[in-house]
Amino acid sequence: MPTYTPPLKDLDFVLHDVLQVHESTTAGYSDLDRDFTGAILDEAGKIARDVLLPLNAVGDTEGCTLENGVVRTPTGFKEAFDIIREGGWTGLGADPEYGGQGMPYVLGMAVNEMHVSANLSFNMYPGLTNGAYEAIRAHASDELKTKFLPKMVTCEWTGTMNLTEPHCGTDLGLMRSKAEPAGDGSYKITGQKIFISAGEHDMADNIIHLVLAKIPGGPDGVKGISLFIVPKFLVNDDGTLGARNGVACGMLEEKMGIHGNSTCVMNFDEAEGYLVGEEHKGLRAMFTMMNAARLGVGLQGLGQASIAYQNAVEYTRERLQGRDVTGAQNPDGPADPLIVHPDVRRSLMDQKSFVEGARAFILWSATLLDAGEADDADAEGLLSLMTPVVKGFLTDKGFDMTVQAQQLYGGHGYIEETGASQFVRDARIAMIYEGANGIQALDLVGRKLASGGGKHIMAFFDIVKTFIKENDGDEALKSGFLDPLKAASKDMQAAAMYFMAEAPKNPNAALAGSSDFMHLFGHVVLGLMWARMGKAAQDALAAGASDVAFYETKLATGRYYMARSLPETALRLARITTGAEPVMGLPAENF
Amino acid sequence: MPTYTPPLKDLDFVLHDVLQVHESTTAGYSDLDRDFTGAILDEAGKIARDVLLPLNAVGDTEGCTLENGVVRTPTGFKEAFDIIREGGWTGLGADPEYGGQGMPYVLGMAVNEMHVSANLSFNMYPGLTNGAYEAIRAHASDELKTKFLPKMVTCEWTGTMNLTEPHCGTDLGLMRSKAEPAGDGSYKITGQKIFISAGEHDMADNIIHLVLAKIPGGPDGVKGISLFIVPKFLVNDDGTLGARNGVACGMLEEKMGIHGNSTCVMNFDEAEGYLVGEEHKGLRAMFTMMNAARLGVGLQGLGQASIAYQNAVEYTRERLQGRDVTGAQNPDGPADPLIVHPDVRRSLMDQKSFVEGARAFILWSATLLDAGEADDADAEGLLSLMTPVVKGFLTDKGFDMTVQAQQLYGGHGYIEETGASQFVRDARIAMIYEGANGIQALDLVGRKLASGGGKHIMAFFDIVKTFIKENDGDEALKSGFLDPLKAASKDMQAAAMYFMAEAPKNPNAALAGSSDFMHLFGHVVLGLMWARMGKAAQDALAAGASDVAFYETKLATGRYYMARSLPETALRLARITTGAEPVMGLPAENF
Question: Any chain A CB within 8 A of the CB of B588?
Answer without folding.
Answer: yes
